[in-house]
Design a protein that fits this description.
Largest sheet: 3 strands, mixed
Number of strands: 5
Number of helices: 12
Structural class: mainly alpha
Radius of gyration: 19 Å
Strand content: 5-15%
Order of helices and strands: HEEHHEEEHHHHHHHHH
Bound molecules: zinc ion
Distance between the termini: 57 Å
Length: about 280
């Protein structure tokens, strides 16, 4: 009870202090975010250092620039432009992508190899950016931090450094745990909205779910994001996407799949480590 009242008090004080309602989705959707953006970025940047230590960045500037271009194209039409986004290709056979708080987005070559068009990659990109827009990562850190450290993150003071470090540790742990189904649904929904706004054919999202659905089961272990999920879940995501697209008719003209460019880019990817 004491914890609860302190926690509520912190939220009330912080929301008054910072007017902490942030836009966290399309249509001016708002959420109460008490951790300031500067601290969210500090936590994301610490997580990025951790990722750089443990994963191998792909040594191909053409691919890095390409991923960045697609990422920035979606950021431009998104509801969050108050931070600098960083897009990185990791050389690893894992079929995965993930976003850390503060705009740090990662794609594995294992996933890129399975995609067939730029629109498929853009669908995953829009999904990841949506997690950042919706503050899914930092919201979970906020919930898990405990009152004292959350207080230090919001108001600064002697514990602020320790609080950022605790946030980095929690953030990494939570990446492995995956988001809730509700958060995933939200990221799927915002993602479709953003990819269409950025000029991509949303058919790419259905192709992407079908591709990942085919890969589900056999290689679903060791993932940050549950992109490769069970069959019923994938079917549900495809059905939701189709229904969302049907509500958006007529779609804007000249939406692209970007198949040819992507096929050229596929040829530049390094071979799989297991040689298959
Ligand atoms: Zn997700």
């Amino acid at each position: 009870m004491r914890f609860l009242s302190k926690h509520i008090l912190l939220i009330i004080v912080a929301s008054l202090y910072f007017c902490a309602c942030a836009t966290t989705g399309p249509g001016g959707k708002k959420s109460l975010i008490i951790i300031p953006t500067s601290q969210e970025v500090a936590i994301g940047s610490g997580m990025a250092e951790e990722v750089a230590r443990t994963e191998k960045t792909l040594a191909d500037s053409v691919w890095q620039n390409y991923l960045n271009e697609v990422g920035q194209r979606i950021v431009l039409v998104s509801d969050r432009k108050d931070i600098k986004y960083h897009f990185t290709v990791i050389e690893s056979d894992q079929i995965n992508a993930f976003a850390a708080p503060g705009g740090y987005v990662y794609f594995y070559t294992g996933l890129l190899r399975e995609m067939n068009s730029e629109a498929e990659m853009a669908a995953v990109m829009a999904h990841e950016i949506s997690h950042v827009v919706a503050r899914h990562g930092i919201k979970r850190v906020q919930q898990a931090l405990g009152v004292q450290l959350a207080y230090a993150l919001v108001f600064g003071g002697d514990d602020a450094g320790a609080a950022v470090n605790a946030g980095i540790g929690l953030g990494m742990g939570l990446l492995f745990a995956g988001y809730s189904r509700g958060a995933e649904r939200e990221a799927d929904q915002y993602g479709i909205h953003y990819m269409i706004k950025a000029g991509y054919d949303p058919a790419g999202a259905i192709d992407m779910f079908e591709t990942l659905g085919r890969l589900g089961g056999e290689r679903s272990g060791n993932v940050f994001e549950k992109l490769v999920s069970s069959h019923p879940e994938t079917q549900e995501r495809i059905a939701n996407t189709k229904s969302q697209i049907s509500k958006r008719q007529p779609l804007p003209k000249h939406l692209s799949l970007g198949k040819e460019k992507y096929q050229l880019m596929l040829k530049r990817l390094p071979p799989k480590h297991d040689g298959n």
